[in-house]
Every structure is written in structure tokens, then in C-alpha cells.
Amino acid sequence: MSIPLNTLNKNTLNKNINSIENIGLIELCFKDFENNNHFGFGRKRISPKIQGSVTELYLFRAFGYRDKSLNKYIGIRRYHDQNDICKFIKFNPRQTVADHIIGLVKIYETENNSKNSLNIQTTYIL
């Protein structure tokens, strides 16, 4: 199951940790890990589409993850050819899930911009 992030209330999405939207996203990410010692990837996915970002160029899915030490993370995966890469950020309950996802998307944008700039630079040796 994948939930489009852009269908939620944009006024409270990344501002209020106690909003219904944020509580729903936390539950979506970490419900599989309640009252047990399971670890790994959560079963639900969030599909972020952030206007003007790298999410318009590539397909991304965000999700909850828990390690063997039972630490929670928000992860995001970019689907691109054979280079599907996941990135994780430790879940901070004082931030919204949307803030975590935006932070991860910014990391991808930084990497994407630096790769593009390397492709543009040409060195001439005389």
C-alpha cells in the first residue's frame, strides 16, 4: 500500500507533530513494530511528490524501518534503473514524518545536483 503524501492537509503536514496527518503517518510507518521485537522494513509506503524537487524526476517511496536494537528510522528509496538506493534518518518524535522525508529528499537533491554539475564540467588540456 502506498499513500500519496500530496493528498494530505498541507497546512499541518510538516508543522504540528500532534496533527492527525502526522499521527497517521507515524502509525503508517511503525504500526508493524508495535508490541513486538520485530525489526526490518515496515509494510506500508508513502509516495512523496514535492513540487520543484527531485521527486518529480524519479519515483520515491518512504517507509518506516526498525533495526535490531529497536531504534526507529524513516527511510526513503529512489527507484532509478539498477541503482535503487535507500537512505535513512533516525526517527525524531519532535519532528513530523514529513520533515524527515523532506530532509531525505534534500540529501538526494544535493547528490543529484553534484552529479549533474560533474557532467556539465569539461576540462580542456592544451
Write structural notes for this entry.
By secondary structure, the chain is an alpha+beta fold. It has one domain. The chain has 2 helices and 6 strands, in the order E-H-E-E-E-E-E-H.
Helix-strand blueprint:
Layout: E1 2-4, H1 20-30, E2 40-41, E3 45-47, E4 59-66, E5 72-79, E6 85-90, H2 97-120
Parallel strand pairs: 1-3
Antiparallel strand pairs: 2-4, 4-5, 5-6
Summarize the structure.
With about 130 residues, this protein is α+β, with helices and mostly antiparallel strands. It has helices spanning about 20-30, 95-120; strands at about 1-5, 40, 45, 60-65, 70-80, 85-90. A hairpin with a 5-residue loop joins strand 5 (about 70-80) and strand 6.
Question: What key phrases describe this protein's structure?
Answer:
single chain, 126 residues, alpha+beta, four-stranded antiparallel β-sheet, 6 strands, 28% helix, globular, disordered C terminus
The strands making up the biggest β-sheet line up spatially as 2-4-5-6
Structural class: alpha+beta
Q: Give the helices and strands as they follow along the chain.
A: EHEEEEEH
- Residues in helices, as a percent range: 25-40%
User: Hey, roughly how much beta strand do the residues contain?
Assistant: 15-25%
Look at the structure and give the mean pLDDT: 83
- Major sheet: size, sense and barrel closure? 4 strands, antiparallel
Number of discrete domains: 1
Overall spatial form: globular
Q: Work out the number of β strands.
A: 6
Residue stretches low in confidence (pLDDT < 50, at least 5 long) are 117-126
Query: What's the end-to-end separation, in Å?
Result: 57 Å
Oligomer: single chain
Query: What is the count of DSSP helices, taking H or I runs of 4+ residues?
Result: 2
Task: Please tell me how large the radius of gyration is.
Answer: 17 Å
